[in-house]
């Protein structure tokens, strides 16, 4: 697919910290799939747009709200498409995310929700998430007492999730999401670890931390 590609803006929804953009496509572009990240130019600045829904003639994604948001431009320029086509291999995928890349993991979790062979656990950083957490109704062995904050959409899908926060948010693990993942892995028996793999989304330094954690426990690692 040649880049850059100018496309028209069909719809925009704003929240305090995030923007949801729907973009019209001139034709179907197979590489634009849910969970992938587009690098787009908006007002002369580059932004990461994580794709949540894709159709033949439009795509929709989420991005951090720019510091200055005035009139929405009629077009944006797509500069690149990033993302791997993952194949979940083990029964207990541990999905760990930080920042806007967490949206990719929610897309992946959705793809697993009706597959009985997989029981994913999603761990995310609570800072700057585009939703309000709620107390989980899903029991999760090995979590510290009081760590019950969960992602509402995943709760509806019966997928276990927990949040970590460095800002003492109610119901969240006190610390980084990498530390939360390490805490959960540390209490697993050897036979259970053989069913675990880590799939991560976030900035390069975050991915390096998760890769090191996976190596420590000798479990497979993939990143989006």
Q: What can you tell me about this protein's structure?
A:
- By secondary structure, this protein is α/β, with parallel strands linked by helices.
- It is built from five helices and 14 strands.
- It has helices at 102-112, 152-156, 177-186, 190-193, 204-216, and strands at residues 5-14, 18-24, 37-42, 45-54, 58-64, 75-82, 92-97, 121-125, 134-135, 149-150, 160-165, 173-174, 196-201, 221-223.
- A six-stranded antiparallel β-barrel has the order 1-2-5-4-3-6.
- The longest helix has 13 residues, at 204-216.
- The model has no long low-confidence stretch (mean pLDDT 87).
Summarize the structure.
Helix content is 19%, strand content 36%. The chain is of the alpha/beta class. The chain has two domains: 5-82, Elongation Factor Tu (Ef-tu), domain 3, CATH 2.40.30.10; 92-223, Nucleotide-binding domain of ferredoxin-NADP reductase (FNR) module (Rossmann fold, 3-Layer(aba) Sandwich), CATH 3.40.50.
Q: What are the main properties of this structure?
A:
Rossmann fold; alpha/beta; 2 domains; 6-stranded parallel β-sheet; 19% helix; Elongation Factor Tu (Ef-tu), domain 3; 224 residues; 6-stranded antiparallel beta barrel; 36% strand; 14 strands; globular
| Helix and strand element order | EEEEEEEHEEEHEEHHEHE
Which range does the strand content fall in? Answer: 35-45%
CATH topology of the largest domain: Rossmann fold
The CATH architecture term of the largest domain is 3-Layer(aba) Sandwich
Task: Tell me the number of helical segments per DSSP (H or I, 4 or more residues long).
Answer: 5
Poorly predicted regions are none
CATH homologous superfamily descriptor of the largest domain:
Nucleotide-binding domain of ferredoxin-NADP reductase (FNR) module
Mean pLDDT: 87
Q: What's the total count of β strands? A: 14
Physical arrangement of strands within the biggest beta sheet: 1-2-5-4-3-6
**Distance between the ends:** 20 Å
Q: Give the domain tally.
A: 2
Major sheet summary line: 6 strands, antiparallel, barrel
Specify Rg, calculated over alpha carbons.
18 Å
Shape: globular
Helix content: 10-25%
């Amino acid at each position: 697919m040649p880049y850059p590609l100018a496309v028209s803006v069909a719809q925009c929804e704003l929240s305090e910290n995030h923007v949801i953009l729907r973009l019209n496509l001139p034709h179907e572009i197979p590489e634009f799939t849910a969970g992938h990240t587009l690098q787009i130019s908006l007002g002369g600045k580059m932004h990461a747009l994580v794709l949540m829904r894709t159709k033949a003639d439009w795509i929709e994604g989420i991005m951090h709200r720019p510091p200055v948001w005035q009139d929405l431009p009629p077009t944006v320029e797509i500069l690149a498409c990033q993302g791997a086509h993952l194949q979940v291999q083990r029964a207990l995928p541990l999905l760990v995310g930080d920042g806007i890349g967490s949206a990719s993991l929610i897309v992946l979790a959705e793809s697993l929700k009706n597959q009985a062979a997989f029981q994913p656990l999603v761990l995310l950083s609570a800072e700057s998430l585009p939703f309000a957490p709620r107390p989980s109704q899903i029991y999760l062995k090995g979590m510290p007492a009081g760590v019950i904050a969960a992602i509402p959409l995943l709760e509806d899908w019966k997928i276990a999730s927990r949040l970590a926060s460095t800002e003492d948010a109610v119901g969240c693990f006190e610390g980084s999401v990498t530390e939360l993942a390490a805490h959960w892995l540390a209490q697993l028996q050897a036979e259970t670890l053989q069913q675990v793999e880590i799939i991560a989304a976030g900035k390069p330094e975050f991915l390096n931390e998760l890769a090191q954690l996976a190596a420590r426990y000798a479990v497979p690692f993939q990143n989006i």
